[in-house]
Structure to design on (667 residues):
């Protein structure tokens, strides 16, 4: 059985520019009903019909889980990426009918926490928009530290400060403001959980320092969707379906498999959920593993690949799909 | 038209019976003449009319009697219902799920009306008409999980998902086959499965856990499990072993048909939206041998399954003492002709 997500038919109800890089999109259900309830940290996969290709990109839901009349996402324009965010910015307008997935949460709050300490970098603020709304609604204890490049790129910073006052701390790169991470991590009460979302470098830095300072790994939560990286085209043979396909420069292996009419499972399309894991039958060449799912040993073994983010360079690759 | 709820007991005088159409809708768990342990998980989607899958949460003629039995168990042993403090939100999720599904499937018996956070729940079979504020525990007589599971057939385990594992952090468990919530509460998936034999290849469990942690909102899954119980006793808990354990020695060739019951659990798995937890309803169906063998296909097939069951599995399921008596009794109903494929009766 395919474990892909259930789909929702929606209409874009509003498109709101937030700053020079970020645009917010609002979705309502086409049948006028309420959207499914979700929890802070959940994402949806948005299907984009871009000419004859379909792009599927995950975006965090940023609205309040207490109000499901609409879903909102914020998309940061990436001019050198594979084009999904550009498509959203250029071609998606109010009134457009789209298909999105049911919400999936791979970054949920640990409800046992006595306190939730959140660290956001840039567009990594979006899941925290929903999580703070959820916690505020239930009287939860949280504190948000948010780094952005400049005040004008501090997406939703004003709104957050207005809503939560001193529970939100801002840091601007252009003013050389930096989180005093060691001090922050060393001064938390017992029972605090740490959440981080932002660029890979920031996530690694925070996880490393937390480990060094003795935070148990179960109390450190992070979300990083690796966008699939472009790369040299390569050929793959799919043993089960008996097809040989080419993965284009701007295409992910998962997308190429889907384009060939095979329907593999996925949830995050960002190398974190494990759902697309595929066995390698044989290969001659080298893998470019970009996932956060497989262990280093799995990576070395050459037996498994996560087609949503990983690529291959070499002579031949046969997968069990 | 509605369901006619039976007046019956699951203890003392054991008046539990299945009506003829409930015999035919019994979820017979064997689709071939042998049985082997497997991860037989499939999507939990609506099935044929008149089957136990007609609705995703099944309510049947035993509803009222089962709820009365649950109240008796809880009065004796309140630890059958437990919820760790962080699971209250999941309890509200479950309350919503069960109210929605019961009202959807059985509008003549249950009605849910919502006005924002003000909800009104009418449960006609149990004579309940309550108005409460969704999310505010002080407006209900019990916590949300206990409130709704005192009104829903089957046991309920609510699992918290964290660190790539599932944790049994809340539940209402009064009709279980020899396991205990009080023992398992707070354990993770591997800890609470530790005693299962024949599945000791860890691989099965890792795959099952992977599947479960990926259960999607809007896409529940299910599986069937089975065992046997002497007398139609819903509560076969370890705490009460002294009451039901000795029953196994009471099976004679004369009383097999009345005493031996096939016990089938329909387990389903649902992602809960607010808490991101998973609820795992375990719905128990009982049928006595005399009722089961009214369907000749089931009689023939059950004979072959029980006869050929590997010894370890028979021991694990606790059949050892009365298995020869049962096989002997069933063999008289097996003329050796082939059984048709599939679970249903002919
Ligand atoms: S789809 Fe989640 S890891 Fe590939």
């Amino acid at each position: 059985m395919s474990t892909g997500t259930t789909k929702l038919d929606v209409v874009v109800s509003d498109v709101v520019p937030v700053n020079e890089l970020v645009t917010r999109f609002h979705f309502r259900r086409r049948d006028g009903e309420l959207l499914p309830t979700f929890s802070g940290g959940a994402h949806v996969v948005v299907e984009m019909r871009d000419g004859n290709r379909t792009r599927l990109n995950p975006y965090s839901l940023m609205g309040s889980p207490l109000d499901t009349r609409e879903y909102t996402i914020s998309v940061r324009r990436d001019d050198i990426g594979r084009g999904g965010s550009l498509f959203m910015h250029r071609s998606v307008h109010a009134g457009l009918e789209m298909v999105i997935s049911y919400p999936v949460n791979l970054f949920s709050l640990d409800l046992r926490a006595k306190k939730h300490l959140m660290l956001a970098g840039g567009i990594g603020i979006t899941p925290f928009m929903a999580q703070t709304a959820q916690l505020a609604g239930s009287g939860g204890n949280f504190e948000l530290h948010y780094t952005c490049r400049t005040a004008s790129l501090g997406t939703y910073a004003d709104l957050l400060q207005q809503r939560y006052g001193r529970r939100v701390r801002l840091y601007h790169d252009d003013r050389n403001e930096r989180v005093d991470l060691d001090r922050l991590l060393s001064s938390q009460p017992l029972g605090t959980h740490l959440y981080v979302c932002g660029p890979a470098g920031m996530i690694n830095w925070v996880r490393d320092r937390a480990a060094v300072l003795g935070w148990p790994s179960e109390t450190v939560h992070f979300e990083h969707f690796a966008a699939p990286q472009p790369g040299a085209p390569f050929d793959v043979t799919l043993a089960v379906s008996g097809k040989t396909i080419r993965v284009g420069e701007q295409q992910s292996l998962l997308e190429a498999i889907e384009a060939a009419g095979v329907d593999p499972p996925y949830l995050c399309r960002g190398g974190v959920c494990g759902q697309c894991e595929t066995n390698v039958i044989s290969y001659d060449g080298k893998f470019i593993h970009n996932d956060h799912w497989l262990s280093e040993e799995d990576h070395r073994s050459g037996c498994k690949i996560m087609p949503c983010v990983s690529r291959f360079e070499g002579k031949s690759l046969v997968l069990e799909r | 038209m509605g369901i006619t709820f039976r007046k019956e007991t699951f203890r003392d005088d054991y008046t539990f019976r299945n009506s003829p159409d409930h015999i035919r809708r019994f979820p017979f768990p064997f689709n071939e003449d042998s049985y082997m342990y497997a991860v037989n998980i499939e999507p939990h989607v609506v099935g044929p009319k008149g089957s136990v899958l007609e609705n995703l949460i099944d309510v049947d003629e035993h509803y009222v009697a089962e709820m009365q039995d649950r109240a008796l168990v809880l009065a004796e042993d309140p630890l059958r219902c437990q919820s760790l403090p962080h699971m209250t939100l999941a309890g509200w999720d479950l309350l919503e799920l069960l109210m929605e599904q019961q009202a959807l499937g059985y509008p003549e018996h249950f009605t849910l009306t919502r006005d924002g956070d003000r909800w009104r729940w009418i449960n006609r079979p149990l004579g309940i008409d309550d108005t409460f504020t969704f999310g505010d525990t002080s407006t209900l007589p019990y916590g949300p999980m206990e409130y709704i599971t005192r009104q829903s057939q089957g046991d309920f385990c609510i699992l918290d998902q964290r660190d790539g594992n599932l944790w049994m952090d809340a539940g209402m468990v009064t009709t279980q086959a020899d396991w205990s919530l009080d023992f398992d509460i707070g354990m993770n998936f591997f800890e609470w499965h530790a005693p299962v034999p024949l599945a000791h290849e860890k691989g099965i469990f890792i795959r099952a856990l992977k599947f479960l942690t990926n259960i999607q909102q809007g896409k529940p899954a299910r599986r069937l499990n089975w065992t046997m119980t002497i007398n139609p006793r819903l509560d076969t808990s370890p705490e009460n072993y002294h009451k039901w354990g000795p029953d196994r020695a009471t099976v004679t060739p004369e009383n097999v048909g009345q005493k031996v019951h096939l016990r089938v659990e329909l387990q389903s798995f649902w992602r809960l939206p607010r808490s991101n937890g998973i609820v795992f309803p375990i719905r128990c169906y009982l049928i006595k041998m005399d009722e089961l063998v009214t369907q000749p296909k089931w009689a023939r097939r059950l004979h072959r399954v029980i006869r050929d069951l590997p010894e370890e599995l028979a021991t694990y399921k606790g059949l050892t003492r009365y298995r020869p008596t049962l096989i002997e009794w069933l063999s008289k109903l097996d003329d050796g002709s082939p059984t048709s494929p599939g679970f249903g009766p002919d």
About this structure: Residues A 266-269, 271-276, 291, 293, 306, 308 surround FE2/S2 (inorganic) cluster (CB under 6 Å). The two ends of chain A are 13 Å apart (CA to CA).
